[in-house]
Specification:
- It is a single chain.
- The protein is mainly alpha-helical.
- The protein has a single domain, classed as Iron/manganese superoxide dismutase, C-terminal domain (minor pseudopilin epsh fold, 3-Layer(bab) Sandwich).
- It contains 9 helices and 3 strands, in the order αααααβββαααα.
- It has helices at 21-43, 53-59, 62-79, 90-100, 103-116, 163-166, 170-178, 183-198, 209-218, and strands at 121-127, 133-139, 150-156.
- Strands 2-1-3 form a 3-stranded antiparallel β-sheet, sandwiched between helices.
- Strand 1 (121-127) and strand 2 (133-139) form a beta hairpin.
- The longest helix has 23 residues, at 21-43.
- It is globular and about 50 Å long.
- The two termini are 29 Å apart.
- It binds fe (ii) ion (FE2).
- Fe (ii) ion binds next to helix 1.
- Fe (ii) ion binds at residues 27, 31, 74, 156, 158, 160-161.
Length: 225
């Protein structure tokens, strides 16, 4: 299948002054578009052509992995922002309080991790196989799918995400980014995770996308069932 660039879920001026229209024109219009174009060119006439994006990420390496993961990561990042103020759902807040003590402590931990990541990469909030929240720091194109974890939220700390607006001041970008998190999107990822868990079928067909997803979450092998 051919992948297409997602439309931004907001007007390019909407996130100003946190993120400018010019940054979005480059970040979404040039960088994100290039990852989509590269991926389509690289998987054409290969075994990856018929796979879903998450499957390509788990099964590939090198250039195909880098471009597939960057498409996934940027899709997640752009959908995870909005101008309107929002709050974590009650359910998500309960988990944050359980695993990080408070929303404020979580914020501090998340932003400190993002500030100190060396070089280019992504900071994620993810759920591990036991349903515990984790802050994960991933270099380059890596993401929590590689650990069998479920991503809920991400922040892009590649310089192309902030250099036009903040030059080298990553911490200033992060401070502003925190104010435009789309908590409805983040909370929805938790709902989806719980729904997939509760609907886990007893007998899996390993060609089934949901089954593969659950297998990854649980690190189990259903190939003989
Ligand atoms: Fe980026």
């Amino acid at each position: 299948m051919a992948y297409t660039l997602i439309n931004l879920p907001f007007d390019k001026h909407t996130l100003e002054p946190a993120i400018s229209a010019e940054t979005l024109e480059y970040h979404h219009g040039k960088h994100h578009q290039a990852y989509v174009n590269n991926l389509n060119a690289l998987i054409k006439n290969t075994k990856f052509e018929t796979l879903y994006l998450d499957e390509i990420i788990r099964q590939s390496d090198g250039a195909i992995f880098n471009n597939a993961a960057q498409v996934f990561n940027h899709d997640f990042y752009f959908q995870g922002m909005q101008r309107e103020e929002s709050q974590p759902s009650e359910e998500l807040l309960e988990l944050i309080n359980r695993d990080f003590a408070s929303l404020e402590a979580f914020k501090e931990h998340f932003l400190a991790t993002a500030t100190t990541l060396f070089g280019s990469g992504w900071i994620w909030l993810a759920l591990d196989e036991s349903g515990n929240l984790r802050i994960e720091s991933h270099s380059n194109a890596s993401n929590p799918l590689l650990n069998g974890h479920t991503p809920l939220m991400t922040c892009d700390v590649w310089e192309h995400a902030y250099y036009i607006d903040y030059r080298n001041a990553r911490a200033d970008y992060l401070k502003q980014w925190w104010e435009i998190i789309n908590w409805e999107f983040v909370s929805q990822q938790l709902i989806d995770f719980n729904e997939k868990r509760s609907s886990h079928p007893n007998v899996c067909n390993d060609n089934d996308e949901l089954c593969n997803y659950i297998d990854t979450l649980e690190q189990t092998d259903h190939s003989n069932t």
